[in-house]
Specification:
- By secondary structure, the chain is of the alpha/beta class.
- The protein has three domains: 88 residues, Urease, subunit C, domain 1, CATH 2.30.40.10; 273 residues, Metal-dependent hydrolases (TIM Barrel, Alpha-Beta Barrel); 108 residues, Diaminopimelate Epimerase, Chain A, domain 1 (Roll), CATH 3.10.310.
- It has 16 helices and 21 strands.
- The chain has an eight-stranded parallel beta sheet.
- The structure holds zinc ion.
Length: 483
Amino acid sequence: MTTLTRCRVGAELVDVELADGRIASIARAAGRPVAGESIDLDGRWLLPGLWDHHVHANQQALAVRRVDLSAASSAAEAAHAMTEHLAHVRLKEGQPIIGHGFRDGLWPDAPTLELLDSAVPGIPAVLISGDLHCCWLNTPALAMYGHAGHPTGVLREDECFEVTGKLGQVPDATLDEWVAESASAAAARGVVGIVDYEMTDNLASWTRRFAGGFNALRVQAGIYTEHLDAAVAAGRHTGEIIGGSHGLLTVGQFKILTDGSLNTRTAFCVDNYPETDARGLLTVPTDELVPLLRTAWAAGIHPAVHAIGDDANRLALDAFEIVGCHGRIEHAQLVRDEDFPRFAALGVAASVQPEHAMDDRDIAERYWAGRTDRAFALRTLLDAGAALLLGSDAPVSPLDPWVTMSAAVSRSRDGREPWHPEQAISVDEALAASTHSTVALGQPADLVAVESDPTTASGDDLRTMPVALTIVAGRQSYSSLGG
Ligand SMILES: [Zn+2]
């Protein structure tokens, strides 16, 4: 049994007793020593532990080890960053040099094979876009990954996912170590749970990690199409607790991508992208989507459908309606006015990533010009009754719910004027969309203590909210408290 003493919950100072992974009692702070182990929170704010509802755990662990291209404002700059890095690393024979995080939507120049070949000659180079939907390869890398003779070196969607999948093939023991590191970093930001949508057999990798002693986070492991039949055959269903994980690992959702992304201009929209006759890519049409949702739902596996463009969202909602199942839509970035009420009516949650709006506001203004009043429309979704789930899509944006909540609440970053501030939500709404429990008797002992009151914090203060303590299932996963 552990007691957290002098915690601020709302306006009150309380002592919170934890036993068997739950909140066993909450009483007005006694101000005197308590029996058993205690942690003095000295008036810090105690909140339910935070969830990130959309993470790519392996990509996140790998991304922090790659050349950071997030600041590159042109193809030439991105290529140059790779050249610079080359001078500081020693690569093994055949080992590729990998960059991560470029956003080419507003670049003045095109990423070309010639440019990357001259920046990184002779060594395979792969540059992965921030939205993970595009990668840019030089000639040795194209040859290495089966695309010799490709004219531009820029691969999108499935061709890109294939390459990033291969790049992610590091030995299990190494990858698990890196994932554990990024899980600890998440715990230090108050995260108690993630929904993992890595494009791999997540149930297998997380079962292995928990068997190896992982316990930093709760994990809901997503299932992709290629693993769906096996999951159904094994009788898996959403919410099922996987043995050997101390209750921390559960079966997540059936994840399926139906369109691309805004940055890569593959999000499937009603209207064409400016100055083109293209309106994005529908990667899974309705006649394929519906039977897949049926299969998953019949087995008790809830679908999570990736849809970014407004036509992709419309078709995803149609598919939920045809099948008559609940689930969630991942991203829901651009939605037709008439589709907002359908989320609540159909029992489809909107799993959204508010920081993407900060990354992509200029790109949205360019490629979704005249439509941004219904882009990243958190307020409209909530007002239409949709259940909202916040996440990061890490490594697309940081695995840090405070960054996510700041974007949702302030619609602003780096001192810029708020973008469509009418779509902001309140801190309480952002917290509710980032938590699975409350600070109340009998609730899971998933808790985070922070240094200041989030409900009165500015957007900037929310973004960098100092976390003092994180507890998962009654066990400390992070502490900055001395002693
Ligand atoms: Zn994702």
